[in-house]
Each structure stands twice: as C-alpha cells, then as structure tokens.
Amino acid sequence: MAQGPAATTIDPAEAEHFGRMAAEWWDPRGSSAMLHKLNPVRLGYIRDRLDQHWGLDERDLKPLAGRRAADVGCGAGLLAEPLARLGAEVVAVDAAPENIEAARVHALGQGLEIDYRVGGVEALDGRYDLVTSLEVVEHVADVPAFVGGLAGAVAEDGLLVLSTPNRTAWSRLLMITIGEGTGRIPRGTHDWDKFLSPDELCARLAEAGLAVIDVTGLGWSLTRGFCLTEDVSLNYLVTAKRARHA
Questions:
Q1: Backbone dihedral angles phi then psi of residue 120, each to the nearest 5 degrees
Q2: How far is Cα 150 from Cα 137, in angstroms, rounded to an integer?
Q3: Do residues 112 and 75 lie in contact, with contact meaning Cβ atoms separated by under 8 Å?
Q4: Cα 59 to Cα 25: distance, rounded to the nearest angstrom
C-alpha cells in the first residue's frame, strides 16, 4: 500500500470539478449521463471477469457474497451500489466530499450498507477480493503512486479492474472535441495529455507487482451504443491480479 499523507494522489482541481456534479450524479439525463450509459457495459465486463477468475456460476445473483470490494474514485456510487447488490462488503472512496455525501444519501434510500470514505486510494485499509477504479487514473496527481496503492489493496487471489481513455486522436475527437464541445460531457472533465495508452498502463501495473490478464476495448457503435470491442482506440478496460514470483 502506498504510504504518505491522505491526499498524495489527489488532484484538488479534479476533486473540485467532480464535486460540482454531485447533485446530478444519479440523474441519467444530467452531467453524468455518459456514465449511466457506460455503467451496464462495465458491469457486464466485471461480472464476466469475476465468473472466469473464481469459476463462479453466472446465474448466481450474489457472486460476491462473503468477499470484500473496494471502488476507488466512486463518485456518488454508480458502481459501488451494484457491487453491494452482488453481495460484496463494499468500501468506496472519492476525493470530493460532495460526492460521498450524495452517495451516502442515495445508498440509504436504496437500503444498502456501503462504507463510503472521503479520500484517495490511501483511504483503503487491508486487502480486497475486488478492487475497481473506473475512469479515474487519468485524473490523479501521481499515477505510479495511485497504481501502487491499488495494487497494494488487491488480495492474494483478488482482481483489479480499471478503465480509462486511450491517448489517441479518436479519443480526443470523440470525448473532448465532440463530447465536451457539445456539452454531452461537462467541459474541463478531460485532459487528453493525461490519458494513458494500454502499454503505458500495463507497464505501471507490472511495476506495481501485478500481472495483466485481460485488456478489452470499450467502444461506441451507432447501432449498439457503448459496447465491448477488440478496438482499444477510444477507451479500454484492464483486469490484473497479483503476479506470481518463483
């Protein structure tokens, strides 16, 4: 686990930007509309990776029962809540206090018990069977420290799942020029220079002692909307586990 002050990996400007969206986080037509469209695809991917890794029954409604999960950069809980419904004991952290307050209120209304904490990856304690951090690594102040913190939280037989935009001309066009330019994504959400290529992110994961077991593209189709694909040029998901050393 990365050591240091609680705000080591937090970019205050990024936390402030996302905190301003807190009130609309659960509105599927609000400023987080794109995340609402992304969420079912990301959840399907995570469920498939869990089933394959632990040999679970795909029909099991509580595949994470008896397991700990951590969601880092949780926003107002779009992923944390489904993880709790899948049976996990969930710890979810976010740098923006406004997001955590919105998350707590929404979870209470859903009858879900989720341990929400204000902070960065450093707010995690112990090890988790599943660690997720979706669309977050491109917003942190210190990528190696952040990835190291995530790696340190993964249990011996656990999984880490990340998603992030690729640094390509296609991602710049679709996410910034069109997405932010038309207001579909709030202006200032992305800094293209902070996007990571799959090779760069996988190298960081390897440096942190993890072995990447899957890289899958997250793309956009006119007929299907967001979908999983072999094309990683827009966005991609990565699954990693603790590396085995001889």
A1: -100, -160
A2: 10
A3: no
A4: 30
pTM of the predicted model, to two decimals?
A: 0.90
Helix (H) or strand (E) holding 94: strand 89-94
pLDDT band at 3 (very low <50, low <70, confident <90, very high): very low
Token digits for 24? 């609309």
- In the chain, the amino acid numbered 144 is P
Tens digit of each residue's pLDDT (9 = 90 or more) over 28-53: 887 777 788 889 999 999 999 999 99
> If we measure between CA atoms, which residue out of 68, 111, 105, 73 comes closest to residue 88?
68
Taking the C-alpha atoms of residue 93 and residue 122, their distance in angstroms, rounded to an integer, is 9
CB of 189 within 8 A of CB of 17? yes
Distances (CA, A) of 72 to 19, 37, 76, 136, 198: 15, 20, 11, 8, 19
Fold for domain 12-164+197-242?
A: Rossmann fold (3.40.50)
pLDDT tens sequence across 68-79: 999 999 999 999
> Do residues 37 and 235 make contact, with C-beta atoms less than 8 angstroms apart?
no
Q: Do residues 72 and 131 make contact, with C-beta atoms less than 8 angstroms apart?
A: yes
For residue range 180-235, what is the model confidence (pLDDT) as tens digits?
Answer: 677 677 676 777 778 899 999 999 999 999 999 999 999 888 888 889 999 999 89
Max mean pLDDT range (81-85, 140-144, 233-237): 81-85
Asked whether the CA dihedral 184, 188, 193, 199 is positive or negative, the reply is negative
Q: Distance between CA 232 and CA 9 in Å, rounded?
A: 26
